[in-house]
TrEMBL record:
The lineage of its organism: Bacteria, Pseudomonadati, Bacteroidota, Flavobacteriia, Flavobacteriales. PANTHER family: DNA POLYMERASE III SUBUNIT EPSILON. Pfam families: RNase_T (PF00929). GO terms for molecular function: 3'-5' exonuclease activity; DNA binding; DNA-directed DNA polymerase activity. GO terms for cellular component: cytosol. Residues 32-201 form the Exonuclease domain. GO terms for biological process: DNA replication proofreading. InterPro entries: DnaQ (IPR006054), Ribonucl_H (IPR013520), RNaseH-like_sf (IPR012337), RNaseH_sf (IPR036397). This is DNA polymerase III subunit epsilon.
Length: 221
């Protein structure tokens, strides 16, 4: 009868899941959003690995600079061709931690926040693959995609997807530290706040359900 036994997860996962027992804030202004980005060895969800994770929290349309996470991960697999994009060397002087330690830090940081990313499906899927390697379930957090939010503005219906570079240029956001996880998280957070501002000016009722609504499912690659 051993197959009836409840699966036991490590304390850090149990602590993470306990956060979701708290009643979430109903007002968008009071929700803790965590904008995040991952730099990876490539774009293959199953084969590639996370090189670094960067986050910054947004509460009440304000970037909380002190509420952030930045970590770099030791690599067994490495794609030298991607170094010219993210600039992270396999060795170097940056302090690096194991993938497990990075995931623990990430879960402790995000708690039950609403996650935000640009083209979020990829970043969420990369985190979920790391969780799978640790024999853990997928992320429980609600997720918003700044690309989907931009589509709600209906400013340009000529194509379905817009890169972060295209939207930062459109909204006059400086591309400081582009292609680092922390830098891209910061840029995406600025974009997120601007998108919320424009949606508000359109007299849109900003509920989390409205912000989440999309034809695409996030994180199921």
């Amino acid at each position: 009868m051993s197959w009836f036994r409840k699966k036991v997860y490590p304390p850090f996962w149990e602590s993470y899941t306990q956060c979701f027992k708290e009643k979430p804030n109903a007002e968008v202004e009071n929700i803790r959003f965590v904008v995040f980005d991952t730099e990876t060895t490539g774009l293959d969800i199953k084969k590639d690995r996370i090189l670094s994770i960067g986050t910054i929290a947004v509460i009440s349309n304000t970037l909380k600079v002190s509420d952030n996470l930045e970590c770099y991960i030791k690599q067994d697999l490495y794609n030298i061709e991607t170094v010219k994009i993210h600039g992270i060397l396999k060795e170097g002087t940056i302090n690096k931690i194991t993938e497990k330690e990075a995931i623990i830090q990430f879960l402790e940081h995000i708690k039950n926040a609403v996650l935000v990313a640009h083209h979020a499906a990829f970043d969420v899927a990369m985190i979920n693959q790391a969780l799978k390697r640790l024999h853990l379930p997928k992320l429980k957090n609600k997720v918003l995609d700044t690309g989907h939010l931009f589509q709600k503005l209906k400013l340009d219906t000529s194509k379905k997807h817009f890169s972060l570079d295209q939207l930062t240029l459109l909204f006059n956001i400086p591309q400081h530290d582009r292609h680092t996880a922390s830098g891209d998280a910061f840029i995406t957070a600025l974009l997120f706040v601007k998108l919320l501002g424009v949606l508000k000016k359109k007299n849109t009722v900003l509920s989390l359900a409205y912000l989440q609504r999309s034809n695409e499912r996030i994180g199921h690659l």
